[in-house]
């Protein structure tokens, strides 16, 4: 990072420093990911492009990156000879990795734009997502009218899915760039004379056009269409038939709510589990903003999967996914208030915890998974709601877990998160934590520090000396705050 910072300073203050031979090195180091290091490399590439006459930047089109660039522009070869071997479209698309494409569909920030400033670099949160600042212009170049395009390579690589990711961005320029890529892809599909799936992809692009025309859509349609693009390249995929039927059944698709929620959640198909998982994963990954949560509630999603959760047809995987959906909804502040005040979320969580604790040992094999997700929900709730009623309910839920024998089998990080919540509850409703409660907590975790301050007080203890990475940090903080007050 320090070397790249120095490189940036040199290029900004001494333009003659930029040379043609630097470009292969920068492209080889670049991974096209959303992280600070790659953003600095992208800033450098933009600077070299701004002085293309001096650096010969456009001679390297179309741009390879990463290991493929290192191999193509090998230092053992003459760069001039390497440029004669211009990369093909397939060489570039082969760089895209499936798991990063999937991660980008799920995690790409909706507030990203196409510009790159120093503040953008410093505020970048590292994710395992491809950077559309680089890829959307690259895709536009690959799909230029004069290019010979293998459309099936573009779809199978995940490039079309990445373009669709940009459609629900809150930045107008990103949406326009994504629409431009779709428009160029449409022209190549429409011009293709053969291909049994031509009509299917034309209908898909038409669905993408609907999103382009509506600027206030939620994240749900984008994720739905991006994942659909990956499925439509695999005719043997379980979701291929239901998604292709949905795409071709109507003249226009309704993206005003969660697409196909009722159909997939209550599917009667033999592959109903896969249908249900698909729509629950869409709900889990699609709730990011207040607008997303509004569409989530308007679709009656919470009511539908709450009934499914308590149903006998709901298996362990389905219940864990439903808890993931609730956790995602609770990360939206208005979601916490709506679910707790209008849908009795905490009462449902309390009931579920007691049902989990009543299960036999054989049924408790997934206990860590369930408790971990419930604790995640409670963390989101306790940070938004500070009233005594909510604090009291959360306190009772956690104490029931702590008093049960199952607490011993929980992972250390889950226990630490439980004490983190109790620390927040203490700040909201400290009267709940009597000496008897502290003794119960100490009996479940025989920590010497807590035992010492409970017996001798905390007059000579400096809480700032406790390492925050300590697995018992929040338990120690709770005891310290209680004894001190």
From TrEMBL:
It comes from the Eukaryota. PANTHER family: NUCLEOLAR PRE-RIBOSOMAL-ASSOCIATED PROTEIN 1 (PTHR13500:SF0), NUCLEOLAR PRERIBOSOMAL-ASSOCIATED PROTEIN 1 (PTHR13500). GO terms for cellular component: nucleolus. Residues 160-347 form the URB1 C-terminal domain. GO terms for biological process: maturation of 5.8S rRNA from tricistronic rRNA transcript (SSU-rRNA, 5.8S rRNA, LSU-rRNA); maturation of LSU-rRNA from tricistronic rRNA transcript (SSU-rRNA, 5.8S rRNA, LSU-rRNA). It comes from Aromia moschata. Pfam families: NopRA1. This is URB1 C-terminal domain-containing protein.
